[in-house]
Amino acid sequence: MGKQGAAAHIVWDWNGTLFHDNAAIIGATNAAFAELGLEPLTLERYRELYCVPVPKFYERLMGRLPTDAEWEVMDDTFHRYYAEHRVTCELTEGASTLLADWRSAGRSQSLLSMYVHEELVPLVRGFGIEPHFVRVEGRVGPSGGSKAEHMVRHIGSLAGVDPQRTVVIGDAADDAVAALHVGARAVLYTGGSHSRASLEGVGVPVVDSLEEAVEEAERLMAA
């Protein structure tokens, strides 16, 4: 049984979903690869291979898991490069309007990202969209893991939100895994880290725009 009177709720992903940062992500990934002498990736190749946890992504490219020392170097390089280049990135087309419209309709939404919390919050605030969310939450602790346990804590912290009336909108298979882990549903967007083919293998709705994502979320909530 769901919570009595629980309203529809969206949990948004940030990187690759609301925040169109593909160029910074690919640049940072290639900068990290260069530290180990790996060949650079195109966006298309990145989308074909990317997976979570991130060390498994590196294993697909290297033929083995990185050592702890290699992971530390690559992770530090990635985040340093990304921090420098994210300033040129913008919100995904239509994101601001969709967030405002959802809030204006009296429905709630939150943001859960695996991007480090202390950097996420001022970034979201800088775009002027923070008031649209009942909670903005980034990663606290080491990088490289799944979003599933973070989703458990996130949903548990939201008063009046029923997982059965919640849809997670993200760009990665891990967003769907996290949604299913708490009993929510998911819609995956093709504009970020995964190819359409890899997303379609997850078994949840896949869309090509955030507008379609919201429409699909509404359909799922009404079912």
Automatic annotation (TrEMBL):
Domain of life: Bacteria
GO molecular function per UniProt: phosphoglycolate phosphatase activity
GO terms under cellular component: cytosol
InterPro entries with a match to the protein in the record: HAD-like_hydrolase_sf, HAD-like_sf, HAD_sf, PGP-like_dom2
Position of the signal peptide: none
Any one biological process term the GO annotation gives: DNA repair
Classification via PANTHER family: PHOSPHOGLYCOLATE PHOSPHATASE
Protein name, UniProt field: Phosphatase
